[in-house]
Amino acid sequence: MAQIQKYKELVGQRIAEGDPGALAVDLLKAASVNNGHWSGRWTQVLDRVRELPADTRKLVADALVDQYHSEQAGPIARDNALTLLGIVSKGLSHNLLAAERLKKLDEMSRQHSIWYSTQCEDLAEAEIAAGRPLAPAVVAVFRRAALETYGSKSMAELAAKLTTPVLNVGEEWAEQAIRDATDPDLRALLAHATTATAAKPTAKWDKRAAALVDVLGAERIRETVLPWLALVGRPRTFELQRQTYGPDVNSAFDPYNANALRGITWFLSLLPAHPDTTRALGGLVETSLKKVAGLGPRNPKVANAAVNALARIEGEAALAELARLATRVTFKGTLKLLNSGLDARAEAMGLSREEIEELAVPAYGLTEVGRAEHRLGEVTALLEVQGPKVVLSWRNADGKAVKGVPAAVRRDHADELKELKATVKDIDKMLAAQSERLDRQFLARRTWPYAAWRERYVDHPLVGTLARRLLWRIDGTTVGYADGELRTPADAPVTGGSEVELWHPVGHEPAEIVAWRDWLERHGVTQPFKQAHREVYLLTDAERATATYSNRFAAHVLRQHQFHSLAAIRGWHNKLRLAVDDEAPPAVRELPQWGLRAEYWIAGDGGETYEDITDSGSFLRLRTDQVRFYPAGAPQNSAHCCGGEYRMWLRDGADPVDPLPLTDIPPLVLSEVLRDVDLFVGVASVGNDPAWQDGGPGGRFREYWTSYGFGDLGASAETRRALLERLIPRLAIADRCAIEGRFLHVKGERHTYKIHLGSGNILMTPNDQYLCIVPKSNPSAPQAGYLPYEGDRMLAVILSKAMMLADDTEITDPTILSQL
Predict the structure, then answer these.
(1) Which residues face 744 on adjacent strands?
(2) Residue 61 in contact with residue 96, Cβ under 8 Å?
(3) 649 and 635 Cβ atoms separated by less than 8 Å
(4) What is the pTM of this model?
(5) What's the longest Cα–Cα distance across the chain?
(6) Residue 318: inside a domain, yes or no?
(7) Would residue 50 count as lying in a domain?
(8) Mean pLDDT of the chain
(9) For residue 339, what is the DSSP state?
């Protein structure tokens, strides 16, 4: 405050003395004191200068040029002199230090944004006043700066003048749009799109957009715009300077262009429904929600705009896309919009939410369950769903299979080929979404009338490829689908019934479960997820002793962000733990159909000095504690993010609610909740990381890593062990393999190896020396014959390692060889 007053008085004194040289020196001293940030009351100092007559300001400008060229001036002083020159020279005719100003603006073009109080907009104004347009990258940085929360009026006024280019350069989609917008109407469309700054379009916005649609035509807009959306999310065409702290700005969306993307989605919602439009909007939702280091989802506002656009489009395709996204999206705000859109459709159609999700699944042109033929001239295209994927194959005029797409199809049926390939992608995405939806049905307590179930599940062209690989109960009788019929374990056909529900192994005798596993193998049925082989978690003596909580999955160390994502996929609500003085609830799964709430107690782990956190302040790892159950609606528990005791948050004098005895929890609910938690640990535990044999940071997790990575098998690993006992004898390396206890033993030429059936970690002779083999990020299981279920990544890892180690003389990887 004193400094501001000092320089305010000095400026007044120099003005009174008529000494422009001394005034220039004092202004530069003030800039040094405030680090070039003329915010707050410092603006009063500049206001005194701005009020000077033009002739006096010319003299001050000349003095600033002298200071710029003085031998004592360093880089910071020169920058400050340039900025002050822009302020002082505003409205004057002479153009001083033009080349230096241009160089400074070029340096600024690689920044993401500029803090408004630096007054750098005066440099841009000076360049414009000189009759030279700003470079597109410079325009981009000032536009981004104007969108900052604390943007100044002068920055906003400058940005309003910068009308070309119509979008910011630096993103591939935007640069393509600039090239495509060769006529005034398309440029007007893009310009109107950049005004989409609200959550939803206003009536006024829609009116202007509809007028542009009338001028351009729906077909032209769709054909022009959709290729732009296909480019969204690609690497920037030039990188911006990375900030020391904060998000990765090169992976985030340009905020100015993000507004344009929102507007484009609104334009698309005004067009007649088209499958290409819904595909593009669904893809934009997923691209916009991809995680960026230090930021989280790239741009939830764009994702939300695309969801709102889908909700405004009528027809089966848009409804199907909303339903598919609802099973895939985990970001809370966007998921809420998806649920609202689906609920609104359900209410409008007089159906339940579950029914609307079932009816939303399109057939994608499949004319029978999992199959369709398309005649293209002399050639037949065959679409066949095979497990989790659809395969597109070709037959010539004689019905013989041909490799690749025939030349005649590429030449004469390019549009049909494009649509077929798009359909393949659509089906693949929907298969994954429907598989996840069905896997969640165990806790949904759903039953179906037999006729509706046949139509929506077993006989549905797409869902039927999943439903026919699952087990169901019809009026209490368990059935599977084989040889065109619903059948019992003895293969007796079942032709009708009244009520259907999804079968779960809880409550069934082991002999019945084994019989169904044999039935699946006999008929070669690979289930889309574990059902007959599903782990069952029964109460243990330890849990009966603790009574109200389970410690079965306590004392683990998990990678927080992996746990967070997986929990969301499985329908749990979780809050990232930040290294701040704040509290958070446990990870929670609401079970409204059962009147229950499940909790998994967790806490952040940042090390003794809190060094294990991200740039954004979130913990890299968590420590785990109890699993508990409460009545639905019970007051929320919370604990400090850094750890400590959980306490119930009581409002308005409410009484605390005790956790429910585990013996009161329905066995199906207990089993499914504990299975989820087992999955979280099995996937996110640091004990699964083969590179952590040193115990990670400071070696403090070495004991945990060893105990987990080579310890007793959990329920999922026991299931894997039972499967491998049946599978290994069929492998080409069977004579070199044996399962003993917790390990798959593999005899190679160099060593004998022990692969842990839970973590996939490896010990080798002699002396159980550790062997580090880091698996691929998405390994595929080697050809191993029939598998009874899909989706066990660790099974694929173990089989891949076994195949490699059985033939260890052929290993060429230098990292592995150095350990052998």
Answers:
(1) 739, 755
(2) yes
(3) yes
(4) 0.78
(5) 109
(6) yes
(7) yes
(8) 88
(9) H
